């Protein structure tokens, strides 16, 4: 398996190469040169497999010769052995059509754990072959930071620098990052939005001086290996609901487009997905792009679903590339123009390519709260604000009654207890395994929203590559 850049001019890499690189050196994102595909019989044979074994089956075509089958199974067993539920991503039923896929049973209570526990092990495995050192630089709107930090804290060959927008993540999200006091963990609160932090990270990947000294990589969903691991739970849910003989729809709370793009990959691999519902909050650039072709960024509006408070969705570039004829040169020009103007119209081929599988819904604060109340009052389920936006979109989308609709529950409700309490009158408690979170010491540094300040901070603390 070879990987190519969405912008056409970076060298093709194998799986180990794209995992360690993160972002392509032409500013693009790596994507498989061709989509592997399972037959209906192969998918049917996966039914009933334990999650770790299913993960190894799904990942094998993407990994190629970079890992042996035995090593891949060993890493999957280690990654998913840390989850608090034996099913890893259990499925619950709301009513005759609506289902909930719980993705928050990992160590930091968010869906990011499903991928990042695996990514941390992949980093360690590949670095041990070269005895090199890796500098992870990431931006988080809340959950990526804590999941990435948990996955790599204390690992000898890795330093991690995580940027979060000061005051724009929940207290639980912040503390899950800032109370990890391992010497290789560096938390940075920047004066700005998530989009500002993400722009700094992308700029650092293109900074020749920084890249000359440090081997910089990403843990955001721009890293292909992370997105690959998220494909697995689409198969897990669909198999339980009758795939491949029965189609399934998924509603995905969406910010950076990585989670829902994993569903697109699953469909490309042969999973019979009827519809992928892109659920956004009032920061609705993706809803506008998919419904009207208008991919124009506005200012970020802070909401009770902070992980979705994003106006530039990095992974959308992968979809535009795949739906637009895989013309890297043309997409590179299109994306560079967007980076300058923050405005872009999708081409006809991009819109047509997306319309067959994707639909979208925008949810306001009242819509989100009503979905939380419905889940509580009618189903006895307490859900977080992000999941509520997905549920609102799922219940607002008309599909045939024989099509089950699975909402991805992306975070434990206790991570957003204030918002849940306002909507339902009930305050969810943190699970006992993280119950002392508010008693732990915090450590982080505050920096202005200035690239040079962040780059100097990293340069003073990172370990130079060999």
UniProtKB/TrEMBL annotation:
<dbReference type="InterPro" id="IPR036052">
    <property type="entry name" value="TrpB-like_PALP_sf"/>
</dbReference>
<feature type="domain" description="Threonine synthase N-terminal">
    <location>
        <begin position="2"/>
        <end position="80"/>
    </location>
</feature>
<protein>
    <recommendedName>
        <fullName>Threonine synthase</fullName>
        <ecNumber>4.2.3.1</ecNumber>
    </recommendedName>
</protein>
<comment type="pathway">
    <text>Amino-acid biosynthesis.</text>
</comment>
<dbReference type="InterPro" id="IPR004450">
    <property type="entry name" value="Thr_synthase-like"/>
</dbReference>
<dbReference type="InterPro" id="IPR037158">
    <property type="entry name" value="Thr_synth_N_sf"/>
</dbReference>
<dbReference type="InterPro" id="IPR000634">
    <property type="entry name" value="Ser/Thr_deHydtase_PyrdxlP-BS"/>
</dbReference>
<dbReference type="GO" id="GO:0030170">
    <property type="term" value="F:pyridoxal phosphate binding"/>
</dbReference>
<keyword id="KW-0663">Pyridoxal phosphate</keyword>
<dbReference type="InterPro" id="IPR029144">
    <property type="entry name" value="Thr_synth_N"/>
</dbReference>
<dbReference type="Pfam" id="PF14821">
    <property type="entry name" value="Thr_synth_N"/>
</dbReference>
<comment type="similarity">
    <text>Belongs to the threonine synthase family.</text>
</comment>
<keyword id="KW-0028">Amino-acid biosynthesis</keyword>
<keyword id="KW-0456">Lyase</keyword>
<dbReference type="Pfam" id="PF24857">
    <property type="entry name" value="THR4_C"/>
</dbReference>
<dbReference type="GO" id="GO:0004795">
    <property type="term" value="F:threonine synthase activity"/>
</dbReference>
<dbReference type="InterPro" id="IPR051166">
    <property type="entry name" value="Threonine_Synthase"/>
</dbReference>
<feature type="modified residue" description="N6-(pyridoxal phosphate)lysine">
    <location>
        <position position="112"/>
    </location>
</feature>
<dbReference type="GO" id="GO:0009088">
    <property type="term" value="P:threonine biosynthetic process"/>
</dbReference>
């Amino acid at each position: 398996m070879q990987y190519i850049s969405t912008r056409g001019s970076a060298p093709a890499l194998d799986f180990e190469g794209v995992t360690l690189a993160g972002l392509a050196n032409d500013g693009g994102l790596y994507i498989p040169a061709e989509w592997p595909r399972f037959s209906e019989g192969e998918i049917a044979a996966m039914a009933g497999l334990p999650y770790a074994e299913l993960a190894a089956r799904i990942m094998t075509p993407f990994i190629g010769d970079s890992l042996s089958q035995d090593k891949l199974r060993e890493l999957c067993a280690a990654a998913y052995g840390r989850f608090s539920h034996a099913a890893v991503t259990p499925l619950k039923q709301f009513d005759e059509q609506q289902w909930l896929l719980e993705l928050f049973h990992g160590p930091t209570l968010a869906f990011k754990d499903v991928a990042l526990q695996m990514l941390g092990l992949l980093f360690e495995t590949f670095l041990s072959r070269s005895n090199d050192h890796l500098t992870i630089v990431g931006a988080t709107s809340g959950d990526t930071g804590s999941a990435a930090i948990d996955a790599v804290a204390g690992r000898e060959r890795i330093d991690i620098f995580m940027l979060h927008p000061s005051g724009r993540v929940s207290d639980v999200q912040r503390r899950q990052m800032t109370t990890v006091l391992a010497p290789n963990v560096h938390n940075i609160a920047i004066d700005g939005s998530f989009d500002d932090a993400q722009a700094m990270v992308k700029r650092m990947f293109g900074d020749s001086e920084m890249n000359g000294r440090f081997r910089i990589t990403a843990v955001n969903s721009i890293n292909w290996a992370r997105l690959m691991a998220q494909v697995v739970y689409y198969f897990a849910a669909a198999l339980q609901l009758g795939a491949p003989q029965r189609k399934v729809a998924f509603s995905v709370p969406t910010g950076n487009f990585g989670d829902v793009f994993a569903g697109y990959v699953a469909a490309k691999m042969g999973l019979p997905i009827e519809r992928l519902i892109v659920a956004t909050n009032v920061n609705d650039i993706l809803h506008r792009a998919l419904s009207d072709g208008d991919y124009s960024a506005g200012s970020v509006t802070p909401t009770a679903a902070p992980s979705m408070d994003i106006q530039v969705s990095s992974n959308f570039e992968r979809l535009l590339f795949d739906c637009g004829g895989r013309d890297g040169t043309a997409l590179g020009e299109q994306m560079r123009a967007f980076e300058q103007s923050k405005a872009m119209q999708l081409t006809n081929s991009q819109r047509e390519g997306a319309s067959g599988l994707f639909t979208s819904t925008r949810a306001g604060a009242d819509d989100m709260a009503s979905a939380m109340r419905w889940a509580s009052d009618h189903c006895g389920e307490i859900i977080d604000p992000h999941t509520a936006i997905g549920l609102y979109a799922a219940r607002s989308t008309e599909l045939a009654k024989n099509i089950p609709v699975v909402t991805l529950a992306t975070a434990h409700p206790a991570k957003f207890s204030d918002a849940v309490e306002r909507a339902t009158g009930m305050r969810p408690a943190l699970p006992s395994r993280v119950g002392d979170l508010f008693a732990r010491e915090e450590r982080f540094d505050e920096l202005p929203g200035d690239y040079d300040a962040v780059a100097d901070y990293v340069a003073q603390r990172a370990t130079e590559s060999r």
